[in-house]
Amino acid sequence: MRRRDLLKAGALTGGLLVGGRALTGTAQAAGQTTISLAGTDGHIILPGRAPLYVFGFVAVPATMSVNDLVATYKGKARHVSPVLDVKQGDDVYITLTNLGLVGRPDLVDSHTIHWHGFRTPTALFDGVPEVSVGVPIHRRFTYYYRPHDPGTYMYHCHFEDVEHVQMGMTGIVYVRPAQDGDPAPDPLHRTTSYAYNDGDGSTAYDRHFAILLNEIEEREHDADELIQEFIFTDYDPQYFTMNGRVYPQTVLPAGDPSLPYQPVSSLIQANPGDRVLLRLANLGYLQHAMQLPGIPLKVVGEDATLRKAPYVTNTLYMGPGEARDVLFTAPPFNPSAPVASDARGAYNTYLFKNRDFRRLTNRGAPGLGGMVTEVRVYQGSPLPAQTVVGETYA
């Protein structure tokens, strides 16, 4: 196929299905995944300050014209960006439209999609503007990929990338293995969902959650909005986020109306005995050490690569640009431990958190905040099977 025909085909096949609670932005046919995103700006809500100016991506209908997208979605960026779900070996088309910026109409920045860690055979679709394609304002471009390696990745804008990544143009993309959906190799396994092509069911899971770690340096965001310069050697973030939220926002359900532009929850809910897969990625500029006290963590994948020798740990060290695939088994419900309840019933709470206490606060305010969320293990088995990654239950 000629390059022109390939791009034309990608542009014509772009579709969208917003799955669950704005968690995914994919539409899938046999052997093909099509995704439509738009880049723009907006504001998010963080405790202790006025709405924060951000850049970001938003899932959009493929059938809309550029003018209609501008009228409908400009200034309504999401942080974090939609979680993208693709299948190993599929033809993946991601159409990006640049809507421009409401808060900074003086900026004429292009946007790109860089699939971080993806093994690409050509620079054309890599998203690094010096060697590939940047999308100017009010234009669109379709990127093409064929993922051969399952696992958890990240995607972000690579135009003025230090600024645009910090401003929020970041998201998780994961590749389901070819083995996914095959009959369970072990009759004790209740699931046919796998993180990797393991051959023995060792990466099988019942539930999975995608969590993007990051930091927010509010002075850089404020300077961007006020047309001022920020010196990145002064980088000293005040907020430490999981999926664009800080605790206690992290445990609000997906699509909570109080956070209209931060739709992705980090709440982890499980029935006793569930095998839970955490798809973790770090797109901040600092290393983070994550812990889940009381529950061992089994690392089965690193940077979209199956570990031949998985290891169990109580602390995950994740540097900038790194990803981990981690399994744990939800423990039995313990009525003697502290018990809380919600509409689904009674549950025990475990905290998945940064081990650095300085990153467990919101702008230095008293009380628990920052990079922490809850793992809730319920009495009995009241939770239905997940239909989308990160699904939460009211």
Determine the structural class based on helices, strands and strand pairing: mainly beta
Which whole number gives the mean pLDDT? 91
What's the CATH C level of the largest domain? Mainly Beta
> Can you say what the CATH homologous superfamily of the largest domain is?
Cupredoxins -  blue copper proteins
Give the terminus-to-terminus CA distance: 48 Å
CATH topology of the largest domain: Immunoglobulin-like
Number of domains: 2
Give the second-level CATH assignment, the architecture of the largest domain.
Answer: Sandwich
- DSSP helix count? 4
Order of strands in the sheet with most strands: 13-12-15-20-17-18
Give the SSE order as H and E letters: HEEEEEHEEEEEHEEHEEEEEEEEEEE
Let me know the number of strands.
23
Largest sheet: 6 strands, mixed
What's the alpha carbon Rg, rounded to whole Å? Answer: 20 Å
Describe the structure.
By secondary structure, the protein is mainly beta. The chain has 2 domains: 3-176, Sandwich (Immunoglobulin-like), CATH 2.60.40; 207-378, Cupredoxins -  blue copper proteins (Immunoglobulin-like), CATH 2.60.40. 9% of the residues lie in helices and 35% in strands. The chain has 4 helices and 23 strands. It has helices at 3-13, 66-73, 161-167, 218-225, and strands spanning 18-19, 24-25, 27-29, 32-44, 52-59, 84-87, 91-98, 114-116, 140-145, 151-156, 170-176, 207-216, 239-242, 268-270, 275-282, 288-291, 297-302, 306-313, 315-318, 323-329, 340-342, 345-354, 372-378. Strands 13-12-15-20-17-18 form a 6-stranded mixed sheet. Strands 14, 16, 19, 21, 22 and 23 form a 6-stranded mixed sheet that branches. Strands 3, 4, 5, 7 and 9 form a 5-stranded mixed sheet that branches. The radius of gyration is 20 Å and the shape is globular. It starts with a helix and ends in a 16-residue tail after the last strand.
